[in-house]
């Protein structure tokens, strides 16, 4: 699909917006945006926990772009379409002709709807299927409360189409409203104004008045209670984890205030958090007004709250200024990782922010060795692959390092003006990497000539790997950890003389990640005896320790590792462990653990781990 300079005025709060990216070629959609754009959608859905399906209709409001067009093409995957009605220019509802093509590859099944007139509205009656890739359905025993079922969506990148027939491309934007019905004792929430959702009565209304790309339409439902943290922020969670979550994330308002001051006013009204079950395959998802959060970051000491800074940062980079295609993901994730770290610096200080940079940079450098070179470019070439298949730290941390590089070259003052100006210029729009390069050249490189050349910027964006002069964040605290580690490894110091009681989780992570993979069983046991790492309650620390232990063949972890793999579905914390185990003599053990854990994993995590054991 090629969109050439298509603009179309959408009046919203008195503003006119360009809703389509000018030169986007999104190979992951069937949508014919050149002919017609859905500017608003209304969902009317029943959440049926028994049959694990959503059932009802979606009504699209259509803005025709071409006077000859009579066809609307939508993306679907694993949907059953019952009937389609459309509203004629005279306001009558008439049946529309449609064909649902067989599923073709990652894009899913193309739904082509034929009208006799340029319909102003089209209503599609449908239901999702239990295997919908964008939904997870949990039985009561899989939840914290054990009493109520739970379900939630994860639409990024191309999974909205598995629960809504929609023009599923980040090159377009739409407003939405919804009426959602659930069993009476279940509360539903969405990425929208949730103020009608306070009375738990099984009937909920939502309104998202700002235009968003479809991958940000989100829903969750379960035994959800609610607690305010500040005038703008609250948490939805199962009662069992509500108070701990509030205590962990009570800096959220401070994060918003600091970000407002750096990058301009938060555009979305409230900022609430939805705590998901541990099977959520990501750390977080930036659904507007309501970020979805893994409970594995509730560590008790705020050591992992950079996740909140990250999802909040998406309220500027991603939700306001959006990647036009999934090959431009770094525009979302690289900017967000950069802003995340700036927020952490403001709220928790420079030392912690630099430690997080250093941990992330080390993680990137390790990954770069194992990713095919073409996939280490910021501007990805997906060539028809599912965006999930090329997912890595590259868009995140290489993107962040590029922006740190520019910040260091131009100085914070100039660079902040540039970033804020970019968010302002592209607010409520999508753009491609090529458009970004033009903007960068004009508003930063040429504005302050002789500092960074366009060629250098292009090297970062279009070439594989890291440029020679890429920033290499180093932390004084980590250097000290290194020297203590060396002293212990060379036998000059015993474990009990290391200053570990002052170490933060970050210093521990650096320590564990940098110990030799052939440390030997005596030293592994000594560490475990001294610090009880096998039973760490911090999911990231436990993960780092298990990785080291698997590499060393240290057996004492296995019962705890079984519990970790069975209890958590966050891909980042399980996939590397399965991969490591699969190439040891513990492969069969790991496969048995997986067979037990698999029903509790999200379809995305199931797919990833299935591929390891195939
Ligand atoms: N938007 C992403 C999650 C995502 C990316 C889902 C691409 C599907 C496709 C989210 O904001 C994210 O990046 N989460 C990270 C947070 C971390 C970097 C702090 C995660 O889940 O680990
Ligand atoms: Zn992100």
From TrEMBL:
Transmembrane regions listed in the UniProt entry: none
Matches recorded under Pfam families: Leuk-A4-hydro_C, Peptidase_M1, Peptidase_M1_N
Note accompanying the cofactor annotation: Binds 1 zinc ion per subunit.
Catalyzed reaction equations: Release of an N-terminal amino acid, Xaa-|-Yaa- from a peptide, amide or arylamide. Xaa is preferably Ala, but may be most amino acids including Pro (slow action). When a terminal hydrophobic residue is followed by a prolyl residue, the two may be released as an intact Xaa-Pro dipeptide
SUPFAM superfamilies (alphabetical): ARM repeat, Leukotriene A4 hydrolase N-terminal domain, Metalloproteases ('zincins'), catalytic domain
PANTHER family: LEUKOTRIENE A-4 HYDROLASE
Family: Belongs to the peptidase M1 family.
Protein name (Swiss-Prot/TrEMBL): Aminopeptidase N
């Amino acid at each position: 699909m090629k969109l050439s300079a298509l603009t179309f005025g959408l009046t919203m709060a008195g503003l006119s917006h360009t809703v389509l990216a000018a030169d986007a070629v999104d190979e992951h959609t069937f949508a014919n945006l050149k002919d017609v754009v859905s500017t608003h959608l209304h969902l009317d859905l029943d959440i049926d926990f028994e049959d694990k399906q959503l059932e009802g209709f979606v009504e699209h409001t259509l803005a025709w772009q071409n006077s000859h067009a009579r066809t609307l093409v939508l993306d679907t995957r694993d949907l059953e379409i019952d009937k389609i009605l459309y509203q004629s220019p005279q306001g009558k509802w008439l049946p529309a002709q449609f064909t649902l093509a067989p599923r073709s590859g990652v894009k899913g099944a193309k739904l082509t709807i034929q009208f006799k007139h340029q319909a102003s509205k089209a209503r599609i009656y449908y239901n999702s299927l239990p295997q919908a890739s964008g939904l997870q359905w949990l039985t009561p025993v899989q939840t914290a409360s054990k009493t109520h079922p739970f379900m939630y969506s994860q639409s990024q990148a191309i999974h909205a189409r598995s629960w809504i027939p929609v023009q599923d491309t980040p090159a377009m934007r739409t407003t939405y409203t919804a009426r959602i019905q659930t069993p009476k004792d279940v509360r539903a929430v969405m990425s929208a104004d949730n103020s009608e959702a306070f009375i738990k009565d099984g009937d909920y209304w939502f309104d998202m008045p700002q235009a968003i790309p479809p991958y940000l339409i989100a829903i969750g439902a379960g035994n959800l209670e609610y607690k305010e943290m500040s005038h703008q922020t609250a948490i939805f969670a199962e009662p069992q984890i509500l108070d701990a979550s509030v205590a962990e994330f009570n800096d959220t308002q401070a994060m918003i205030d600091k970000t407002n001051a750096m990058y301009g006013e938060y555009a979305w009204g409230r900022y609430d958090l939805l705590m998901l079950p541990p099977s959520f395959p990501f750390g977080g998802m930036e659904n507007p007004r309501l970020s979805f959060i893994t409970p594995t970051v509730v560590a008790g000491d705020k050591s992992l709250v950079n996740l909140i800074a990250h999802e909040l940062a998406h309220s500027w980079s991603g939700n306001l200024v959006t990647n036009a295609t999934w090959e431009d993901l770094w525009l979302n994730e690289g900017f967000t990782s950069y802003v995340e770290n700036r927020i952490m610096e403001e709220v928790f200080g420079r030392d912690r922010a630099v430690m997080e940079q250093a941990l992330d940079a080390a993680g990137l450098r390790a990954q770069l060795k194992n990713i095919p070179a073409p996939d280490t470019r910021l501007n990805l070439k997906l060539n028809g692959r599912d965006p999930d298949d090329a997912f890595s730290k590259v868009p995140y941390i290489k993107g962040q390092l590029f922006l740190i590089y520019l910040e260091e070259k131009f100085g914070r003052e100039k660079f902040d003006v540039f970033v804020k100006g970019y968010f302002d210029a592209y607010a409520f729009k999508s753009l491609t990497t090529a458009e970004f390069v033009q903007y960068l050249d004009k508003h930063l490189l040429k504005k302050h000539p002789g500092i960074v050349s366009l060629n250098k910027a292009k090297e970062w964006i279009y070439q594989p790997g890291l440029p020679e002069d890429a920033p290499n964040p180093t932390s004084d605290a980590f250097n000290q950890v290194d020297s203590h580690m060396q002293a212990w490894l060379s036998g000059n110091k015993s474990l009990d003389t290391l200053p570990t009681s002052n170490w933060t989780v970050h210093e521990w992570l650096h320590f564990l990640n940098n110990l030799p993979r052939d440390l030997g069983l005596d030293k592994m046991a000594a560490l475990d005896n001294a610090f009880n790492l096998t039973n760490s309650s911090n999911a990231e620390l436990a993960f780092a320790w298990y990785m080291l232990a698997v590499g060393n063949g240290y057996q004492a972890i296995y019962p705890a590792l079984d519990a970790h793999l069975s209890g958590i579905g966050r891909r980042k914390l399980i996939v590397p462990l399965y991969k490591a185990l699969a190439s040891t003599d513990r492969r069969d053990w790991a496969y048995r653990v997986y067979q037990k854990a698999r029903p509790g994993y999200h379809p995305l995590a199931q797919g990833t781990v299935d591929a390891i054991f195939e």
